[in-house]
Amino acid sequence: MCDDDIHPGLVVDPTVSRRAFGLMAAAATGVAGAARAATPVVEKDVEIKTPDGVADAALYYPEGKGSWPAVLIWPDVMSLRPAFREMGRRLAASGYVVLVPNLYYRVKRAPVIDGAFSFANPEDRAKITPLRATVTPDGTARDAVAYLAFLDAQPQTNKKKKAGVQGYCMGGPLSVQTAAAAPDRIAAVASFHGGGLFTDQPSSPHLLLPKTKAEYLILVAENDDKQDPTSREKFKAALDAAKRPSKVEVYAGAAHGWTVKGSQVYNEPAAEKAWAELLDLYKRNLG
């Protein structure tokens, strides 16, 4: 999860217009990327019954006839908000059915934070602590199964193709837990500045890797790695021992939280590079 000393600082989450979003995507990925960004997308707020209650979430898929592979996005510690809605919309425009759930549905509907939030402010951080405590490995496994079942129940989902999962900050471990909860469904896992992938606890995500059948993309912030490079090395060793194809890379010059718009550390060139790697991962494994 987001470390007590390494965090994205002040987070202000402005909504990016569809036109601005299209222009940014065009600049980052060229003509082909602009064409994908221009794909009209359906966006819906949905509720999903889980063993623990009713989860609020956002669903995205391309307009028109057809079916597409499913992807689950686990947001960071601040949960479902405009930055992740934009992310879901953008991924759907590339040809996926995307679900972005609220991590904390058991206690509060999204958005769980209103306005600006500073991780350097103890009072702000105190608002998150009790919410984080509601996200457990067992609960995540139950949620993941429910969310994937919901995605597979959508007529837009191509169930003949495998599904993907991606996570940010605390969403990194949740993505590994998802791959273990649904190994025959999840073929690709991406973690962006994820924390706690390798720990000395019996619930450590690295212990789940032998249960999974996915390819992994693990992108690490430079300041996270400098604090504890052995964690990244041990997780890579665990991936290799589990015979899971993977790429584990430290993004030089990118700080914890670099891929999420709205934070002080957002790094657009590095974020676009990570996005391109994500799309390549999904193209290889989901079709």
How are the secondary structure elements laid out?
Layout: E1 10-11, H1 18-37, E2 41-50, E3 53-62, E4 70-74, H2 82-93, E5 97-101, E6 117-118, H3 122-132, H4 137-153, E7 163-168, H5 171-181, E8 186-192, E9 215-221, H6 222-227, H7 229-241, E10 246-251, H8 268-286
Parallel strand pairs: 4-5, 4-7, 7-8, 8-9, 9-10
Antiparallel strand pairs: 1-6, 2-3, 3-5
Helix pairs in contact: 4-5
Based on CA atoms alone, the radius of gyration comes out at 17 Å
The fraction of residues assigned to DSSP E strands is 15-25%
Please bin the fraction of helical residues.
25-40%
- The structural class is alpha/beta
The side-by-side strand order for the widest beta sheet comes to 2-3-5-4-7-8-9-10
- What's the main sheet like? 8 strands, mixed
End-to-end gap? 31 Å
Estimate the mean pLDDT confidence. 89
What this model shows, in words?
The protein is an alpha/beta fold. Helices cover 38% and strands 21% of the residues. The chain has an 8-stranded mixed beta sheet, with helices on both faces. Helix 4 crosses helix 5. The longest helix has 20 residues. 49% of the residues are buried.
Question: Which terms would index this structure?
Answer:
single chain; 287 residues; alpha/beta; eight-stranded mixed β-sheet; two-stranded antiparallel ribbon; 8 helices; 10 strands; 21% strand; disordered N terminus
